[in-house]
Amino acid sequence: MYHPCVKYRVETCVIALPRHRAVPLHVKGGIMKPAAPFWEKKSLQDMTQAEWEALCDGCGRCCLIKLEDEETRTIMMTCVACRYLDSDTCRCRYYEKRREYAPQCLLLTPDTVDNYSWLPETCAYRLISEGKSLPWWHHLVSGDPQSVHDAGISVRHKIISERYVHPSDFDAYITDVFGVPSHTP
Ligand code: SF4
Ligand code: SF4
User: Fold this and answer.
1) What percent of the chain has pLDDT over 90?
2) Is 155 near ligand 1, meaning CB less than 6 Å away?
3) Does the beta carbon of 137 sit less than 6 angstroms from any atom of ligand 1?
4) Would the N or C end of the chain have less CB density within 10 A of its end CB?
5) Which of 12-26, 69-83, 116-130, 151-165 shows the lowest per-residue confidence on average (mean pLDDT)?
6) Residue 178 located in a structural domain
């Protein structure tokens, strides 16, 4: 999708729906000891589909429209959200069929995570790919899907749908409030 003035290329992306935390226990020497959770012992490539889906924190940040300056290649995040993002739940309304509704929606896979430099620093896929820990507010750690909102990480109530913004005005909504500073490769 291209911005009408051809200065900017416009992209959106996302991936997964959070599931609930499951922390298996094992017994050794008679003491119940929690086993390392999957995200601490598996690489992205080794995760099952269910584990991969569960890793998404549901922040909705990757469903914001990004602008790329075609001259400088600088990528900038806006607070304009894809028309299919539910601004309350911060989930895709058509997640299972999103590629039919939005062919420009990029697929995040274990092999493409490192290609998307604009993924927010808080994105769980980026964190795991970089060998970092999940933060306290991630639902797999907190056990509460609400904590991503309570911590102010999600885009809830901070965005405007692209349904209400003309593409020629997208650049008026450029922001770094979502932890994605403008990036030039
Ligand atoms: S930025 Fe990462 S963790 Fe947040 S919704 Fe997108 S894929 Fe999920
Ligand atoms: S189609 Fe769904 S997953 Fe893709 S960018 Fe839009 S809201 Fe996000």
Assistant:
1) 69
2) no
3) no
4) C
5) 12-26
6) no
Q: How many domains does the chain have?
A: 1
φ and ψ of 164, to 5 deg: -110, 10
**Has this prediction a pTM greater than 0.90?**
no
pLDDT 10s digits, 84-101: 999 999 999 999 999 899
Q: Return the SS3 of 169.
A: helix
Give me ligand 2 centre to Cα 82, in Å: 6
Closest by CA to 78, choosing from 178, 183, 184, is: 178
The answer as to whether 3 is a domain residue is: no
Residue at 175 is within a domain: no
Atom of ligand 2 nearest to the CA of 84: 7
CA distance 97 to 94: 5
Task: List the beta bridge partners of residue 105.
Answer: 12
Ligand 1 binding pocket includes 122 (Cβ within 6 Å): no
Q: Which ligand is nearest to the CA of 162?
A: 2
How many angstroms separate the CA atoms of 134 and 43, rounded?
13
Question: Phi then psi for 40, rounded to 5 degrees?
Answer: -95, -20
Which range, 68-72, 95-99, 158-162, 172-176, is most confident?
158-162
Going from the Cα of 124 to the center of ligand 1, the distance in angstroms, rounded, reads 7
Please indicate, yes or no, if residue 43 is contained in any of the structural domains.
yes
